[in-house]
Design a protein that fits this description.
heterotrimer, A alpha/beta, B mainly alpha, C mainly alpha, B: mainly alpha, 11 helices, C: 80% helix, elongated
Chain lengths: 330, 267, 261
């Protein structure tokens, strides 16, 4: 039985359709990466699957229970670590996990045992009796993750679990997620980081402006895109001229950041000398040159025409993902 | 249909629910015990009102219509109930803050029934209300408030706890509806109006006609009369049951509205 | 001259901003309008029979008597709200942006005070309107009303200065907010809500010397009987004293903040 089944799921906020009829399926024991820019609809989707938001169309089932009709059963089988680590700064780490255990219906003794074990697991045993308000960002995320696991959920939802963390903390979270999955937990992970989806996910769904634009394993998706591209840094102001100089040598891609030219080339590294010669003849200096193999961002560009990372502004639905609380209907 | 971790046996579910309520009440006490000075505004405001009103309006006692000669005894239960109202409103403000900070999501995503989550917040307010009430009463005794007798004290504190619960239901309803601390003035103004649009400052007969009409309709008038009876005379069942009925009615209505809002947070 | 013009423009712009802020955030407007109006209704309804007490000044109604006190309350809460908003600006870093601009430093404080004074003006108009709607007479007529409005507006400037000084000194909105009970204490220990002669000791003696009692009497007299030179001058003196105190404290606190960051 699939762990998560979504059919035509929709969510509108007034006139804004934040999630526009998505379909997906996550098998048991899988890590599913839900990748997209800010405002794409990732958090809205997670909130619907975790019963925090009612869909306005379509249906979804988690662990065999309908998220609307059987919401309570869904909550009993899932663990959730949301985008904003929902922690009480006045509580200690140990108190928080014990409270979570109580909320999940665990008897007091068992809750305490599991809390202690989880604090050890996420390397917070030493800080367990300190107030959460004094924890670092990484510690808070680990605590949030531990709280989500106290009742040994079948399905774990992680909404951008490493956003804002330093590389070391991020790696720690990745290792923990992998270990959980090795133990059999299904993980639904939303992220805006390509590397995260690439490293962790068995399957990736790419969402943009409320729609799934691509789905498959990371390798399948990258394979669809095809050719590598040359990324040149030519300095501000020289980009239009540089693009004119190399336009006939390959296929120009949408710009990404200032002073960069992206050119898809069929011959790969063999085309580099021709490109350099063309720029030299045009009198354009090259600050750096790199041959880049396809990434999930390339997949995103292919499907949507804009970059997932490194471009100013996100999707059209920026801010539509979670509108102001005051604006939601009574 | 799988139900691997869902508990369906009634006794253990009740035990779980009570444990959850107890855990939420325990969490609420952190605000008082772990934030230096957090208790002070909640205690100070009703005390200032008590002393201030006594100093300002104390001469009203010379008007015919008051059954006793001690204005402070007349208004001390009002200030205690006002403190209960502030405490309940504060519970609503805290819930709104918890909502803004994402904490409420943690509660909502758990399998605990919605009434249990609400009950924890409301019960915590009832318990906290004893702090300002006792402070006001202690100050009252120092300046000459009459001893209400054990029965008078018990009825008064019962009304205080119930009033705090009523105010917490009101505050929680607004917090869950607006999902923002900007609703705080509405929470505070609502409880203030409820407590003071009554024979708070003077007996019914001495109120201006419009306020007399409003006070006659306002159920909290019965709550005040019940809380006040020991301080101005003796406790009778005739003065007590209307107060009990009033709080039961208010809790039923406001509790239902708050629960409705809690169930609609995902709309 | 052009420095003065610049300063005036800055004060005007910052004053307009502080007014806009208040209207956009209901939790700032509420203490200025909602609570004092609610209290006015409750106190006139609950304690209105007090005008029957021997020694109560001759008034048309308790509402007529209470208007001045309500205006004072709204004005003082506007001062407190202004202080809170100023402290929030400091916490958010907005004042750093102003300090880094080529504007006169004290214009930043005056801009905030201009906003508070405008709110005081608004509050006085509101309560005069409430009074007129519910049948209270302004015995001093239009000159009396204008005098009351002017005294309240000037008082708002005075109280705002104290709020600004505390905000600058502490940089903490919660500290300024915590002073709200103090506002109530000052009001209860004045003749804002009841004639000083009929209050109970020790409130009665404190009210006799409380500078805010002088201000309240100065605002009240034109409403209940007409303009009287003595009460007016006493009110002006009290306001000037508090303005000097507020501005002095603000200037000191501003210098301290600029020095220490």
């Amino acid at each position: 039985m699939p762990a998560i089944v979504v059919e035509g799921l929709e969510r509108s906020f007034g006139d804004v359709l934040a999630v526009q009829g998505i379909d997906l399926q996550v098998d048991e024991g899988e890590i599913y990466g839900f990748l997209g820019p800010n405002g794409a609809g990732k958090t809205t989707t997670v909130r619907m699957l975790t019963t925090l938001l009612l869909p306005t169309g379509g249906r979804a089932g988690v662990a065999g229970f309908d998220v609307v009709a059987e919401a309570r059963q869904v909550r009993a089988t899932i663990g959730v670590a949301l985008q904003e680590a929902a922690l009480d700064p006045l509580m200690t780490g140990r108190e928080l996990i014990r409270l979570q255990a109580t909320l999940q219906g665990l008897p007091t003794g068992e809750g305490r045992k599991r809390a202690d074990a989880l604090l050890e697991r996420v390397d917070l045993a030493a800080a367990a009796d300190r107030r959460v308000g004094g924890y670092s960002g990484g510690m808070k995320r680990r605590l949030d993750l531990a709280a989500a696991l106290v009742h040994e959920p079948r399905v774990l939802f992680l909404d951008e679990p490493t956003t804002g963390l330093d590389p070391v903390s991020r790696k720690t979270i990745w290792e923990e997620v992998q270990a959980l999955n090795d133990d059999g937990t299904t993980v639904f992970l939303t992220t805006q980081y390509l590397e995260e989806a690439d490293q962790l996910a068995d399957n990736v769904g790419i969402i943009d402006r409320g729609r799934i634009v691509a789905e498959g394993t990371p390798e399948e998706l990258k394979g669809e895109v095809g050719s590598p591209h040359i990324e040149l840094v030519v300095g501000e102001g020289a980009v239009p001229e540089a693009e004119r100089a190399v336009a006939e040598l390959g296929k120009l891609r949408p710009r990404k950041g200032e002073g960069r030219v992206l050119l898809e080339v069929e011959g790969g590294a063999a085309d580099i000398p021709r490109v350099v010669r063309a720029l030299d003849e045009a009198g354009i200096g090259v600050e750096s040159l790199e041959l880049v193999r396809p990434t999930l961002d390339d997949v995103f560009v292919e499907k949507t025409g804009h970059h997932l990372e490194g471009e100013e502004g996100g999707g059209d639905a920026e801010g539509a993902d979670e509108p102001e609380a005051e604006a939601s209907p009574a | 249909m799988e139900a691997a971790t869902v508990q369906t046996q009634a006794p253990s579910e009740w035990r779980t629910n009570l444990a959850t309520i107890a855990a939420l009440v325990a969490r609420a006490k952190n605000e008082l015990l772990r934030v230096p000075g957090a208790a002070i505004p909640g205690v100070l405001a009703p005390t200032i009102f008590f002393l201030g009103l006594n100093g300002v309006f104390g001469s009203l006692i010379h008007l015919g219509g008051f059954e006793i000669s001690s204005y402070e005894s007349f208004i001390v239960p009002v200030s205690m109930l006002q403190g209960a109202g502030f405490t309940g409103a504060a519970a609503g403000v805290n819930l709104a803050r918890d909502y803004e900070q994402g904490w409420v999501d943690r509660l909502l995503v758990s399998p605990a029934p919605r009434w249990v989550l609400l009950g924890g917040n409301v019960l915590a307010a009832s318990a906290r209300a004893f702090v300002p009430a006792t402070f006001v009463l202690a100050i009252g005794f120092l300046i000459g408030v009459q001893w209400p007798g054990i029965d008078g004290l018990v009825v008064c504190y019962l009304m205080v706890a119930a009033m705090a619960a009523v105010a917490a239901c009101w505050g929680s309803m607004l917090a869950l509806h607006y999902k923002s601390q900007s609703a705080a003035p509405l929470m505070q103004a609502g409880t203030m109006a409820l407590v003071l649009l009554t024979p708070a400052y003077a007996p019914l007969e001495l109120l201006q006609p419009w306020l007399e009409k409003v006070a006659n309709i306002n159920p909290v008038t019965n709550v005040i009369e019940a809380a006040r009876q020991g301080f101005i005379g003796s406790v009778t069942w005739g003065d007590t049951w209307p107060g009990l009925l009033a709080v039961a009615g208010l809790l039923t209505v406001l509790g239902a509205l708050a629960l409705r809002e809690m169930r609609r947070t995902n709309v | 001259m052009s420095d003065l013009a610049t300063g005036a423009r800055v004060v005007g712009a910052l004053g307009a901003r502080s007014i806009r802020q208040t209207f956009r955030r209901p939790q700032l407007m509420s203490p200025i309008i909602v609570f004092p109006t609610l209290l006015l209704a409750i106190q006139t309804g609950g304690a209105g029979a007090g005008i029957e007490l021997p020694g109560f000044p001759p008034v048309q109604s308790f509402l007529q008597f209470m208007l001045a006190g309500s205006m004072m309350q709204a004005m003082m809460l506007a001062g407190n709200s202004g202080g809170i908003a100023f402290a929030v600006d400091i916490e958010m870093g907005f004042t750093d942006r102003l300090f880094a601009s080529p504007i006169p430093r004290f214009a930043i404080v005056l801009g905030r005070l201009a906003g508070t004074a405008a709110l005081g003006l608004l509050a006085s108009l509101w309560f005069l309107a409430i009074g007129l709607i519910f049948g209270a007479h302004i015995e001093g007529g239009i000159p009396g009303a204008l005098l009351a409005i002017s005294l309240i507006t000037a008082s708002a400037l005075a109280v705002g200065g104290i709020g600004a000084a505390i905000a600058l000194r502490t940089g903490s909105a919660s500290v300024v907010q915590g002073l709200f009970p103090l506002v109530l204490v000052v009001l209860f220990l004045s003749s804002a809500f009841f004639p000083q002669e009929l209050m109970i000791e020790p409130a009665k003696t404190i009210a006799e010397y409380n500078p805010f009692s002088f201000i309240v009497e100065g605002v009240r007299e034109p409403i209940i009987s007409g303009i009287e030179a003595k009460q007016t001058l006493e009110a002006v003196a009290a306001i000037v004293g508090i303005i000097l105190l507020g501005l002095g404290l603000s200037a000191r606190a501003l210098r301290h903040r600029l020095r220490t960051g």
